[in-house]
């Protein structure tokens, strides 16, 4: 695989000096075009240590407008990073639309170094690479252009380079102990690199292997590749504008059988039963949450449901049992402009709790497959692939030890009307009822279909949906509390 | 001080039941008004542990619209927090305009607990409280409304409460070991609390002391106080709109003596001298930076200077000597909407480096006293107080062990014109010259005044300004590099 990249490509000084000013001008032009378009560019620079990655990145930063480009070099994760799912820090560093992000030490570093150091076996490596492919596909689906450059350098050449540096008093400082250690691991690294490149060179995000033996050659090659990829992408997206096929609002008749229809909404508790159970489960939850905190186990709770389904009330029954320092309730409101400029999951990644913390979402990422689907804010393609994206996201949380629980608070149409009317009578609840609520009511059947699909496609072993019979608020609150207690208890063993 | 708050205030159930719905309605109304105005509200809830802070916060969250209120409970700082100046996490949690933030365990917790645990003495405490007063004043100056509530409870009452909880199987879980420990420290805590309240009850942000013995009384009292403060503030700011007095553009004649005028711009290096020194200092810097990283010493470098003064070039001569994982260059561009909704220093706090990291600003917070002053984007009042705010900010960085260095790259008017012309000839530098640059040139004298003032008022022992003779790019780059090396060397001892 690296045969071609070991031929020792060079670029003559004269040609370099002539080519660079042109390239810089073109790169600036393409940056301007990019700034006006609606997609981000992610450049991954990987390859052998000592292959000149650092110099290439320095030159790219020199050539381009610094306001539109940001380099993230990922090192050993910090404590706060370790306390979150491994991909959290990569998500936080993703470029916004119109921007270029350069990752050094990206999601490729860990699998490779872990495998070399025998911390994971071959099957683990495959599974990690599968995950890498998934994440890249998700980002590309969302419109991101991913450009991957692998800087290669033959063992012989690397040896020679280190030697010549060591002799030169002006360049001696460039040689570190790490470089020498890495040279010893060269063959191992090279073998595994080949495998990684093979498995992650996808149609949408292929690797470019660059001979790194001459910085003039490698930097111009990488620069031209970036230029070409962005230009082609812009051209292509103009020819084929992102399809914005709206969902057909088939005002279908109510289905004969539905998941929600199968719930027994007559379930209820008397006030006395409720008060007893409430104190009981709140006390239990308090103890369990403290234990979870000590053990570093986080929870992510998602509350979804019909308007006026009682989400807020259910959340408060949970938080009243918790220490204010341990939880955060996140009501999902309109995204900020920083959030709009990223993948729709980015703003949820932002709030991923640290180990031991509890995050409760009042509405969530499921908006994508509920309101955005029904109202046509997301294209069919977008909400269809969202099921997989959401499953992947929740799996990452779960793999990092987070307890993920999702609740749908179900009431029937009559109960909803009763609650709307009741709210309109109470001065401090009036604001909760808007025209939009009545408009949503008219789409009841479409929402019901969307909920059925959502539960079917995203109820997983690691993040199950709990359907809550919520016509009786007391019953619903206790069921949510109890289910959270049970899940915590199980998790704590 | 707490005499009144120990009388055992209660609110009858009937009155409470009648008052709460009114209060909720009014709070929602005031939240709506707030959402449309241009200031944030910060509520600090402090007081004895077990005094019912948690319950009050739960109720406030229940009464108000969750989309406009966010509670931050600060616990023991995490590793990532400890690796930054102590106030970093508070800055990150500040509410945006139109929003309410509640802080539990705010900047008051640390001074109090450290003093009780004898980790700081009386003088340290005073110095910390002075700092608290400064930060609150800065926030208030920027338009923030700060509401501080101290929840008190007499020792007797607290004892009784814990006892009764322990007996009740349904409430037993509410009593923690910490509560019992804190009860033992009650007298100490009470004495120090009095002192803290006294010293930090300022005209703009007074403390309200609330008797916490009855949750009905305390919650309604706090709720009404919040309502009253926000309403009064809105009314007041309508009567007296923020004064937007623009700076007079006194097209003053050039001053006889100026700091910048005293620089010898004829200083220069030959190409050979330059190349030697460059390799030498880059090698030195690389070693020093590695040592600083190991020792956890961060640097914050600020590059300011005339347009075309050579900031970018000087920055690159530094970064070429560094490992990409250790530094970040932040080109200061237009703020995002999240940034605009905060204090102007917030977006710089955001990027405060972790211990061992290097952050280089290409333009910086000094925009406030340069372009914003000259162009009249900031009122005179705003840029005048910015000197103190900036000094405080840099002192915090410095106190946290950060090396803060500031450079003004000075060229004369003729050299600038020459560079503008030169840039216009180079295809990839053309974009750097805009009409704005020529417009700025016309304000040369005003900028020169602003720079003189800036250097005079913000050159401190802990964060000095370095004026760089930059008519010769080579000379300037070496001087910046050398000065950074010298400062690092001194810091590393």
For the record, what CATH class of the largest domain in chain A applies?
A: Alpha Beta
How much helix, percentage-wise, in residues of chain A? 40-55%
Low-pLDDT residue intervals, each spanning 5 or more residues of chain A: 249-254
Find the structural class of chain A using helix and strand composition.
Answer: alpha/beta
How much is the average pLDDT of chain A? 89
What separation lies between the terminal Cα atoms of chain A? 49 Å
Oligomer: homodimer
Biggest interface found: A-B, 60 and 59 residues
**Structural Rg of chain A:** 27 Å
CATH topology of the largest domain in chain A: Rossmann fold
Q: What count of helical segments of chain A does DSSP give?
A: 20
Write the element-wise H/E pattern of chain A from the N-terminal end onward. Answer: HEHEHHEHHEHHHEHHEHEHHEHHEHHHEH
Largest sheet of chain A: 5 strands, parallel
- DSSP E strands of chain A, number: 10
Strand % of chain A is 5-15%
CATH architecture of the largest domain in chain A: 3-Layer(aba) Sandwich
Q: Which properties best describe this structure?
A:
alpha/beta, Rossmann fold, 20 helices, 52% helix
């Amino acid at each position: 695989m690296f045969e071609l990249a070991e031929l020792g490509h060079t670029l003559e000084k004269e040609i370099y000096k002539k080519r660079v000013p042109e390239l810089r001008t073109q790169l600036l032009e393409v940056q301007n075009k990019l700034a006006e378009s609606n997609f981000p560019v992610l450049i991954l620079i990987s390859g052998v240590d000592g292959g000149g990655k650092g110099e290439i990145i320095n030159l790219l930063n020199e050539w381009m407008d610094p306001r539109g480009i940001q380099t993230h070099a990922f090192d050993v994760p910090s404590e706060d990073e370790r306390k979150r799912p491994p991909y959290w820090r990569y998500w936080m560093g993703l470029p916004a639309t119109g921007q270029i992000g350069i990752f050094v030490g990206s999601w490729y570093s860990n699998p490779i170094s872990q495998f070399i150091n025998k911390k994971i076996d071959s099957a683990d490596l495959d599974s990690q690479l599968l995950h890498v492919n998934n994440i890249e596909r998700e980002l590309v689906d969302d419109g991101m252009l991913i450009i991957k450059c692998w800087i290669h350098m033959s063992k012989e050449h690397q040896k020679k380079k280190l030697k010549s540096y060591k002799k030169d008093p002006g360049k001696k400082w460039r040689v570190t102990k790490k470089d020498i250690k890495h040279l010893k691991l060269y063959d191992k690294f090279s073998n595994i690199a080949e495998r990684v490149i093979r498995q992650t060179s996808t149609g949408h995000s292929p690797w470019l292997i660059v001979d790194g033996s001459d910085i003039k050659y490698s930097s111009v090659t990488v620069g031209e590749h970036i230029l070409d990829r962005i230009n082609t992408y812009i051209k292509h997206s103009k020819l084929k504008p992102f399809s914005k096929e709206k969902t057909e609002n088939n005002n279908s008749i109510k289905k004969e059988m539905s998941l929600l229809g199968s719930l027994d909404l007559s379930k209820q508790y008397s006030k006395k039963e409720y008060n007893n159970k409430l104190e009981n489960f709140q006390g239990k939850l308090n103890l369990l949450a403290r234990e979870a905190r000590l053990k570093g186990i986080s929870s992510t709770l998602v509350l979804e449901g019909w308007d006026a389904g009682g989400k807020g009330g259910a959340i408060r029954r949970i938080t009243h049992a918790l220490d204010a320092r341990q939880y955060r309730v996140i009501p999902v409101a309109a995204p900020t402009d920083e959030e709009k400029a990223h993948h729709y999951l980015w703003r949820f990644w932002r709030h991923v709790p640290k180990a031991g913390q509890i995050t409760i979402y009042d509405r969530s990422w499921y908006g994508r497959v509920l309101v955005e689907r029904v109202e046509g804010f997301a294209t069919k393609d977008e909400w269809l692939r969202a099921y997989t994206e959401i499953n992947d996201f929740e799996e990452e949380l779960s793999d990092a030890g987070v307890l993920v629980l999702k609740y749908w608070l179900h009431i029937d149409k009559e109960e909803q009307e009763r609650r709307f009317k009741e709210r309109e009578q109470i001065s401090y609840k009036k604001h909760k009822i808007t025209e939009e609520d009545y408009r949503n009511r008219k789409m009841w059947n479409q929402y019901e279909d969307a909920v059925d699909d959502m539960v079917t496609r995203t109820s997983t072993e690691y993040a199950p949906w709990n359907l809550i019979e919520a016509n009786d608020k007391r019953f619903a609150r206790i069921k949510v509390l109890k289910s959270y207690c049970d899940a915590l208890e199980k998790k704590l063993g």
